[in-house]
Amino acid sequence: MAVFLFILIVAIALGIVGVVVKGLFYLLIIGVVVFLIDLVLSGVRMGRRRGSRLTR
Fold first, then answer.
1. What parts of the sequence cross the membrane (predicted)?
2. Across the 56 residues of the chain, what is the mean pLDDT of every consecutive 10-residue run?
């Protein structure tokens, strides 16, 4: 969970810098891509946890 939050903060920081500083729009794009990758990876993790439980 800590890694998810750290990557989320990095993505937000890249997005803010990309919007504020002129000519660094590519940082906004990188921030969005990092955010989406983080969401996908956390979704995969949650799916694995849910599927590994034994049913009674």
1. 25-44
2. 80 84 81 85 77 58
